[in-house]
């Protein structure tokens, strides 16, 4: 079953919901997989290629 994550941008201590990601991988790879999801979220939701921002992922239940 796919895992769903909410993607938030953190600005001045406030979380702003940007959207969501779906992890389609059947098996988990621990923390390295989490880092890959964060990088994917940054690429997907960045306003420009040089945009650097803090991302928080929360798994939906």
What is the N-to-C order of secondary-structure elements (H for helix, E for strand)?
EEHE
Q: Regions with pLDDT < 50 over 5+ consecutive residues?
A: none
Biggest pleated-sheet summary: 3 strands, antiparallel
Q: How many distinct domains?
A: 1
Can you give the helix content as a percent range?
A: 10-25%
Backbone CA Rg: 12 Å
Q: Give the total of beta strands.
A: 3
Shape: globular
Instruction: Kindly report how far apart the N and C termini lie.
Output: 12 Å
**Number of contiguous helices:** 1
Please identify the structural class as seen in this structure.
Answer: alpha+beta
Brief synopsis:
The chain is α+β, with helices and mostly antiparallel strands and 61 residues long. The chain has one helix at residues 31-45, and strands at residues 3-11, 14-23, 54-59.
């Amino acid at each position: 079953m796919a895992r769903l994550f909410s993607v938030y941008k953190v600005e001045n201590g406030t979380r702003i919901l940007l959207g969501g990601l779906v992890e389609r991988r059947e098996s988990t790879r621990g923390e390295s997989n989490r880092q890959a999801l964060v990088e994917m979220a940054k690429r997907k939701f960045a306003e420009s290629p040089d945009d650097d921002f803090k991302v928080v992922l929360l798994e939906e239940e």
